[in-house]
Amino acid sequence: MRTVLIGDSHLARLRRELQTLPGEVRNVAEGGASARDLLRQADAVGLHGSDSVVMSVGTNDAAPWKRVPVSEFVQTLSMFVASHSPRGWVFVAPPGVVEGRSTRARDRTNAVIDEYRLAVIEVCEAVGGHLVRTDLLLESLGAQAFAEDGVHLNGTGYRVLVPAIKSVCGALQ
């Protein structure tokens, strides 16, 4: 059995923490990835029916320079999960951002990311997936869970997120 991580940098940045996840772990998540990249990532790793798939998308889809329309995001995500039948899906909902730390004039906002988070929740429920509500897990930490850029998680954030992912993946084994 494998635990396969796909999607964006919220998973791509996991290194040392991978050894705590169950089974053989394959991480093909990439910084900057959006829902449009999931099929390519899944093909690269060759998803199996015995795999547990951990997926994180939405943060980059919400970026003004990508701005994948929410309707396209839902359609792409839905078509992707319909085209694969792993042991289980684990959806890692976008955590949001620390808006005051952005160095770009126009960057992601929590209001826009909320739309993508709701779409992730909708697709997760439709396919009977398991949801990790990153935003709720990190709520008490606030900005302390994020790196200086306000987008990526830091060690504090991952110390909360990784055990939640591990718990859900363990239940799928």
From TrEMBL:
<dbReference type="GO" id="GO:0016787">
    <property type="term" value="F:hydrolase activity"/>
</dbReference>
<dbReference type="Pfam" id="PF13472">
    <property type="entry name" value="Lipase_GDSL_2"/>
</dbReference>
<dbReference type="InterPro" id="IPR013830">
    <property type="entry name" value="SGNH_hydro"/>
</dbReference>
<dbReference type="InterPro" id="IPR036514">
    <property type="entry name" value="SGNH_hydro_sf"/>
</dbReference>
<keyword id="KW-0378">Hydrolase</keyword>
<feature type="domain" description="SGNH hydrolase-type esterase">
    <location>
        <begin position="13"/>
        <end position="160"/>
    </location>
</feature>
<protein>
    <submittedName>
        <fullName>SGNH/GDSL hydrolase family protein</fullName>
    </submittedName>
</protein>
